[in-house]
Structures are given as C-alpha cells and as structure tokens.
Recover the amino acids of this structure.
C-alpha cells in the first residue's frame, strides 16, 4: 500500500500564492477526481507534487509512505513511484521513445530490463493504446499529433508502473474513440498495478470510465468540497456556481 499525503500545502508562482493550504491523501487503488474552474491551481498542485522548479513551496508537506517528497529531486520522485501525465507533453528530438523509456526503467531497478521483456511490454502498451507500431523508434513526441502525445503519456505510465499516477487533462482534445481507448488503458493499468490515481479533468464522461472513488473541487487554492461520484454528476449538470452559495467561496 502506498500513501501520498499532502498537508497544508501553500505554493507560489512568481511570488503569487496559488495554493493556499491544501490537504489531500491518495492511496493505492483509489482514484481521485480533481475538478474546479480554470485557473484555480489544479495544474499547480500536480506540478508541485512532481517537483517542477517554477513552483515554490512556501508552507506544508508532501510525503510518500512517510518519506519527504519535497527534499527529493524530480528524478528521485519518479523513481519513488510518482508519475505525471502532462497536459502539454514536451517534444524531445534526438531521443527515441524506446531509449527514453528504457533509461527511465533502468534508473529504477538494480539490473537493466532485458531487451526481450522491454520490447514485449512496449508492444503491449502500444497495442493497448492503438498506436502506430513505429512509435518506439520515433523521437519522443516529435511531430506527434495532440492525441498521440496524450496516448504516449499513458504508454509511459504502463511501462513505468507508478505507485501514484497524476494525470492532467489527459483527456482534452481526444476524440470519442480515443477517449475510450485512453481511459480503458488507464483503468486496466490501475487494476494491474494497484496505482493510486489523481486525475484532473473537466469531463464526467472521462470519469465514468475511470470510476473514481473520490472527487474534490479546488477553488482559490483550496479543496472546498470533497465527495464521491455524485459530486462529479452535480458539477456536470450544474457547473460550479452552486458552490458559491453553499460553501461561500468564489471561483
Ligand atoms: P488550473 O490547472 O486549475 O486551471 P493552474 O494551476 O494552471 O490552474 O493556474 C493557477 C494560477 O496560477 C493561474 O492564475 C495561473 O495563471 C498561475 N500560474 C500557473 N502556472 C504558472 C506559471 N508557470 N507562471 C505564471 N503563472 C502561473
Ligand atoms: Mg490546469
Ligand atoms: Mg487561485
């Protein structure tokens, strides 16, 4: 069992406080839907957990099974089991997808993965995401369409088997069929590995595939309400305005 614990987290970007005291616990096998109007700090939270240096932690703590995440470099956080599937994955030309993934995998285990096993797992992931077979040999995200980049984030997730996976609007820009393929791959990966998921999306349809155990609304740097699937359904049909009245918050 893995447990990511966030306590009283305050995060600033360029001296502006974005997260203002956020508490959250994500455990193995749980799926947390993180919702909220644009510009309230969802991506900031995920980036801060992963260790993006643009985000300064001014107060609070993040621990993974009791270990202090904030004192770890980004690569160490990844080796400890944290994963971030990004909204805008970067293109890296000169490094192939398979070289990139093999070095990530090898960095987290004592002896390198056998080429046979690596190819087998990579083929399985590429097939699951219904991507073109030459993906392994192409430069990382170089010239990939928006949808291919998103699928490729999930190929990485399947290969790296994180204990806590965070996904930032991984469903945005996917067509109906791609949405189903991507969400089933995420769901099956979680079933196989027992990962805890922290998923940012605006769409109830995506969450339906993932079957979240928890849902939260982030407004003005804090989680103002938490619940289950009923919360996602209410936001889908009514938006966020009702929260202003019921919880005295303004988005
Ligand atoms: P969300 O993901 O909920 O839409 P974000 O976390 O992206 O919100 O942004 C929260 C606030 O922080 C916004 O006002 C945004 O402009 C600001 N912000 C986030 N990242 C940066 C950054 N790298 N540089 C400057 N401002 C940022
Ligand atoms: Mg965002
Ligand atoms: Mg804010």
């Amino acid at each position: 069992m893995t447990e990511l614990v966030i306590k009283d987290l305050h995060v600033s970007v360029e001296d502006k406080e974005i997260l203002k005291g956020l508490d959250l616990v994500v455990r193995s096998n749980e799926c947390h839907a993180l919702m909220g109007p644009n510009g309230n700090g969802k991506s900031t939270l995920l980036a801060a957990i992963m260790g993006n240096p643009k985000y300064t932690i001014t107060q609070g703590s993040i621990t993974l099974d009791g270990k202090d995440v904030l004192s770890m470099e980004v690569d160490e956080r990844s080796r400890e089991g944290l994963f971030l599937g990004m909204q805008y994955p970067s293109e890296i030309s000169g490094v192939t997808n398979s070289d990139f993934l093999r070095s990530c995998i090898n960095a987290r285990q004592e002896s390198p993965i056998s080429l046979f096993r690596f190819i087998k797992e990579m083929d399985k992931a590429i097939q699951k995401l219904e991507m073109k077979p030459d993906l392994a040999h192409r430069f990382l995200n170089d010239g990939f369409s928006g949808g291919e980049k998103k699928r490729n984030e999930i190929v990485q997730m399947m290969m790296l088997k994180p204990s806590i996976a965070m996904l930032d609007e991984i469903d945005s820009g996917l067509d109906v069929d791609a949405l189903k393929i991507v969400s089933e791959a995420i769901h099956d990966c979680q079933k196989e590995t027992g990962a805890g998921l922290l998923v940012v999306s605006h769409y109830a349809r995506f969450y339906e595939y993932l079957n979240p155990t928890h849902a939260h609304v982030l407004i003005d740097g804090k989680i103002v309400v938490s619940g289950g699937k009923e919360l996602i359904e209410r936001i889908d049909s009514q938006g966020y305005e009702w929260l202003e009245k019921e919880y005295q918050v303004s988005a």
